[in-house]
């Protein structure tokens, strides 16, 4: 059932109460909620909102890096454990204007810097399909709250696949639109040139509808796009005939799990039967291998500068000290987890004058080459597909995801190319491996989200996987 | 390879206004080695004549904000999260110039 | 050994916009602490900068006045460091692509004229204000985010006089443009001076000292002079000058050490990713250029070449924008240019102080002053009488009312005067003889007599003319 249908079949209060019940029920198992948000005033305010509004009375969740006035916004970090937002992010305003009721702020990897959600200040988030496994991150909380049926929609952010990877691990849809399509104003940043606001839904129809609500120019975000917002949800036929889709051969080759490969190949077969032309596209292997170090350098460098405001002086948790340097240091040492302190050190290293040319600026140049290669690959096709991951959600003890590995994994890191290039991309359910969801990732041309949702609707018909819920608790 | 040892990274951290424990500094030394290997991979890529990419879309904008007062905090909102304040000033230990 | 002084100056100037450089909070003027800020100015998590168009316009005007080459693409960078007055932990500035490059201003001192080159002009944002007490520092973020232009000169100045002339020239220019209050005492204009010495005739730069905390023109002069003495003493003794930052101490009347320059701080500059490059249309830039008010140099040229005023008069008039504006207004109502100039330069300042000149036109309108100048020029009122009139005119009383009330009138009627002159000459035959015998005092005596008869109201110019003519006619055979 999609959001449009849901609105017709229940009242806002019914929906919100059900969502809260499920959230509380699942919380001891999933640990996905950081703060439960008061809904009374929001429900009251519905009388000022047109009942035809697309998200009228729909309970939603915001990742805890989204500012919501008078609500605690922690960014998943101890240093902001007591920070009460004094302003709304632009998307908070837009969602509330569309009738949405925010029921909770969800857990995330600290300051968005991670892919496991194990680094959240409030502890790990668990996978509803297997509680001994991770949700993935950094938008883990939002992902599991949608996957476990609590809410039909949740906001995440995607800097290096942080929406699209957890979507894969949780059997739902994760959307990252084009860079600048959704305003970043009021979102605690990770890396400004890579950050995208994204979101989770359980079906393509909702995904398309949500973009109509969220997208559009915001003068407060100078990188936001002036390009017109289309009616993405209208006429989503899912007709694949005549479409030309490429699959990224390098990624497919790097996948070891035979079940994943089998599902993927089956899908391609069905796509052809449905009338699409599916071709193999070869990307530059060296450039694909360069994605991770390029990302690591750029992201960590920008992040280090972005979080220099977290010093405990104007807001946040302050530790004692004898002089200003001591206070700042004590606050930041206690406030930042060891993983992000590590990343800050490496990020800062790349920005030193003597290192910038070889590291930061070199990475920025390689970024351009990677982006050019992607555009070359996209040239002549409507979109590119590949499995979003070579496996289902890893076990909790598997910390390899957060470490630089000498063994480079093209299959696990390729989605970053959409962050580098700003191309719109989404992950949707492909199938199950050993009972664990695995997703397929789709990349399209900049600002061709309508086409992306069309294709996704077509794939959704073929997989038959939509509205998958794995409830927890009870 | 110069002296990228624990002490070096501890000093770097200090400049960023936080501390690293011995173990944490050691971890960075270990991971740094991996990073350097990955960086050598970057070096093999020819970027002669290639300019840096700062943002995904490099269109210039013509937009600038009109000079009108729009968004101001009340003093309460400004001070709401202040760890320490007096008379609506943010207060900290005396800063030595 | 003689040493040459080499001086470079860095100026930070607060712009006169309504809102901050990157946020729509108001720029504050002595308001309650932390009442002119929003989430952006406080560096709250998640905020993004948005560029103030008016700040860009004012920076462009400054570039034009300083003859800088303008970069039509505006780009910003981050300067990263930690300090309590820097809310984001970085300052948004223009390190790599300043809006203005390679300009120049001409300064004049007793030693002559010099072109001082401007290395760069760029936009950035101001920091918060800190108040240091015994054990605490209190911080007010109202000033944080205020738009600044930073102007850096080349080390082209060679004396305290030139340093002062440069700062004054910049102050005048920026004031004329209306882009800043340029009040050094209030901090809307701050100067840092870099000064070094080198043996006369050499070209290599010596070790430079940076002097901060100069809050008046006079202190600039004193600081430079004391620094020259200090550095000369060091070098003459065969020692080396240490690179350091010093500040000027008012009580000691000399510079004192602030801190040694410990190697160069690495600010890790990189392009600001939240602001895409901003393209300024060429026509728009030119529109701004045509909207510039007439600058001091142009006015000076107009005053001397078109209006025929002296260099000195032009200089005095253009030194003060309000005075110059007022003078130009007066000229809209009278054609007696030199008279108007005299009154504005000599008489007005005697009655009205510098600061009150801007309110002058509310009591003594240019039209009103012009009407009096007209009467002087037309010989209806003498200069002496004008001086009687003026104090009342300044209070706002109308010219006619003053003339009537004080019974000021001048006898200029030729027939009437001729009559009186004839009578006087008839009464003073000896004076006629004395005059023609070359006794100068005779003329003055006769004029005095005429004045007596007219109660001082005889128009001196006309009187003189007629008297001389009559005296010639009555020349003894």
Structure commentary:
The complex is a heterotrimer of chains A (474), B (97) and C (477). Chain A has 474 residues and is an alpha+beta fold. Chain A has a single domain (1-474), classed as Alpha-Beta Complex (Amidase signature (AS) enzymes), CATH 3.90.1300. Chain A has helices spanning 3-9, 12-30, 40-45, 90-97, 140-147, 164-170, 204-214, 249-254, 258-273, 285-306, 324-335, 338-351, 353-356, 360-378, 410-413, 417-421, 449-463, and strands spanning 33-36, 59-63, 101-106, 126-127, 130-134, 154-158, 173-176, 196-201, 244-248, 277-281, 383-387, 425-433, 436-444. In chain A, the strands form 3 sheets. Chain A has an 8-stranded mixed sheet with strand order 6-8-7-12-13-11-9-10, sandwiched between helices. Chain A has a 3-stranded mixed sheet with strand order 1-3-2, with helices on both faces. In chain A, α7 packs antiparallel against α17, α10 (285-306) crosses α12 and α10 (285-306) crosses α14. Chain B has 3 helices and 2 strands. Chain B has a two-stranded antiparallel ribbon. In chain C, the strands form 4 sheets. A 9-stranded mixed sheet of chain C has the order 2-6-7-10-1-11-12-13-14. Chain C has a 3-stranded antiparallel sheet with strand order 5-4-15, with no helix packed on it. Chain C is elongated and about 100 Å long.
How are the elements arranged and paired?
The complex is a heterotrimer of chains A (474), B (97) and C (477).
Chain A: H1 3-9, H2 12-30, E1 33-36, H3 40-45, E2 59-63, H4 90-97, E3 101-106, E4 126-127, E5 130-134, H5 140-147, E6 154-158, H6 164-170, E7 173-176, E8 196-201, H7 204-214, E9 244-248, H8 249-254, H9 258-273, E10 277-281, H10 285-306, H11 324-335, H12 338-351, H13 353-356, H14 360-378, E11 383-387, H15 410-413, H16 417-421, E12 425-433, E13 436-444, H17 449-463
Parallel strand pairs in A: 2-3, 9-10, 9-11
Antiparallel strand pairs in A: 1-3, 4-5, 6-8, 7-8, 7-12, 11-13, 12-13
Helix pairs in contact in A: 7-17, 10-12, 10-14
Chain B: H1 6-15, H2 22-43, H3 75-79, E1 85-86, E2 89-93
Antiparallel strand pairs in B: 1-2
Helix pairs in contact in B: 1-2
Chain C: E1 3-14, H1 53-65, E2 69-70, E3 73-74, E4 77-80, E5 90-93, E6 100-109, E7 112-125, E8 129-132, E9 136-140, E10 147-153, H2 160-177, E11 189-199, E12 209-214, H3 217-236, E13 244-249, E14 254-260, E15 270-271, E16 278-279, H4 282-290, H5 296-306, H6 311-319, H7 321-330, H8 337-351, H9 360-363, H10 366-377, H11 383-394, H12 399-405, H13 414-427, H14 429-436, H15 441-453, H16 460-473
Parallel strand pairs in C: 12-13
Antiparallel strand pairs in C: 1-10, 1-11, 2-6, 3-16, 4-5, 4-15, 6-7, 7-10, 8-9, 11-12, 13-14
